[in-house]
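Work Package 3 (structural annotation) set out to generate three-dimensional models for the target panel prioritized at the project kickoff. During this period the team completed the workflow that converts sequence records into discrete structure tokens, so that structures can be stored uniformly alongside our sequence database. As a representative example, we reproduce one entry of 118 residues exactly as it appears in the project archive.
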Amino acid sequence: MEMELPLYSFDHEGSIQFIQITDTHLVEAENGHLLGLETLHSLECVLNSVKAENSLFDFFVMSGDLSQDGSLRSYQRLKAALLPFKVPSFWFAGNHDCMENMQAVCQDTEHFNNVIRT
């Protein structure tokens, strides 16, 4: 088993604060639903709460399943939703996620780190 663990540092001392969001299950369609829930709207509500309640944090941890269908568009929606926060985010794939599409959307940005390779 091969493991790659990149290092990441912050420009400040003190505690590190992060927001973890999991199982967004975004889909290709903008108004896509899963189990009766519009997934993009749900993410937008969560992010609005983050804006209202958490003024200072260092990064997002986005844990899978980020996408329900693994579509390129679902990852583009996620990236667009996170960009206004101007903090890095670390994406971890779940069983519905497509690593190839995640990497395609997040090339050359701080919005993707393939932390562990097996």
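Residues 22-106 form a domain with the Purple Acid Phosphatase; chain A, domain 2 fold (CATH 3.60.21.40).
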